């Protein structure tokens, strides 16, 4: 699955890729990379009123239970209420390399980088958390 922007754009991709809660609104979608132990994965980061969700641009090949291989997008879904904190970070040697770290209440860390508009992505994450805390 290669994510392509056509009619409906990011909203359509978000709805097709993830389960949407009643009343959930997409606040922002950003192209970025998710840092993994195997290296960075290019994709889209969706920030909604209910969740932070990432989907890789390209499908990854993984082994299936029957011994074959399947292609599937790499997805991460973090419910807003599970987020403990969101941190800004940058490479000391290369200050233009900025990262967003999301830490969950169950101690998982997710690092996102390579945003076209880092500041807007970070502010949208903060806004989503603030909206969630008001309910």
From TrEMBL:
Domain of life per record: Eukaryota
A family per Pfam: GRAM
Domain GRAM: from-to ranges: 12-90
InterPro entries associated with the record: GEM-like, GRAM, PH-like_dom_sf
SMART domains the record matches: GRAM
Protein family according to the UniProt entry: Belongs to the GEM family.
Protein name: GRAM domain-containing protein
Source organism per UniProt: Papaver somniferum
């Amino acid at each position: 699955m290669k994510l392509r922007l056509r009619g409906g754009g990011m909203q359509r991709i978000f709805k097709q890729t993830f389960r949407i809660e009643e009343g959930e609104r997409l606040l922002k979608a950003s192209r970025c990379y998710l840092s993994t132990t195997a290296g960075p994965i290019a994709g889209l980061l969706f920030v909604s009123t209910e969740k932070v969700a990432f989907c890789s641009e390209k499908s990854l090949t993984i082994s299936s239970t029957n011994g074959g291989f399947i292609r599937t997008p790499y997805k991460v879904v973090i419910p807003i209420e599970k987020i403990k904190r969101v941190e800004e970070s940058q490479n000391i040697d290369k200050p233009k390399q900025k990262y967003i770290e999301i830490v969950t209440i169950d101690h998982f860390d997710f690092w996102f980088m390579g945003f076209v508009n880092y500041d807007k992505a970070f502010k949208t994450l903060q806004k989503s958390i603030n909206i969630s805390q008001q309910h």
